[in-house]
């Protein structure tokens, strides 16, 4: 092929970055999860303005891709809160389990983007969260390699 037909890149061209995967699952969020999405969008918008002022096209392209993701997550977010009169585990519940060795762990069941197991936040799609939803105090669930008993359920806001 002749080099006459090869398009040479220049400083004003930046490749379009592929969009981040949104997934097929419902985007159920807690009120806090929606606030975190809003905060992320605000941060990215400020970063985008800074990238534009610095004429950093690569940073702007990356930030624009992330903004598309978070704006789509915001647009599809369905805020849900647990029924405070219920005695079963549901989305938004905080659940404390006791493992066979006596160790207790507490998790809150939250949306996909809010999940952070190290901070005690389980995405509702996590295997443990799936096994907890619909259960009551005293029920035993599979928690990793062992079973664990549900010892407390609360429906915080």
UniProtKB/TrEMBL annotation:
Record protein name field: Transcription elongation GreA/GreB family factor
GO annotation terms (biological process): DNA-templated transcription elongation; regulation of DNA-templated transcription elongation
Gene3D superfamilies reported for this sequence: Transcription elongation factor, GreA/GreB, C-terminal domain
InterPro entries per UniProt: GreA/GreB_C_sf, Tscrpt_elong_fac_GreA/B_C, Tscrpt_elong_fac_GreA/B_fam
Pfam families: GreA_GreB (PF01272)
Taxonomic source organism: Aurantimonas endophytica
Domain Transcription elongation factor GreA/GreB C-terminal: start-end pairs: 87-148
Superkingdom: Bacteria
GO molecular-function terms, A-Z: DNA binding; RNA polymerase binding
């Amino acid at each position: 092929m002749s080099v006459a037909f090869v398009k040479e890149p220049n400083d004003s061209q930046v490749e379009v970055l592929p969009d981040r995967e949104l997934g097929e699952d419902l985007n159920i969020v807690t009120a806090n999860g929606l606030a975190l999405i809003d905060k992320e969008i605000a941060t990215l918008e400020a970063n985008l303005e800074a990238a534009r002022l610095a004429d950093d096209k690569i940073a702007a392209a990356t930030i624009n891709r992330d903004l598309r993701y978070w704006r789509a997550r915001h647009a599809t977010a369905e805020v849900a809160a647990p029924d405070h009169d219920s005695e079963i585990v549901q989305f938004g519940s905080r659940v404390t389990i006791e493992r066979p060795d006596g160790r207790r762990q507490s998790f809150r069941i939250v949306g996909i983007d809010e999940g952070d197991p190290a901070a005690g936040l389980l995405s509702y799609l996590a295997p443990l969260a799936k096994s907890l939803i619909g259960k009551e105090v005293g029920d035993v669930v599979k928690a990793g390699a062992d079973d664990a008993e549900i010892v407390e359920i609360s429906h915080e806001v």
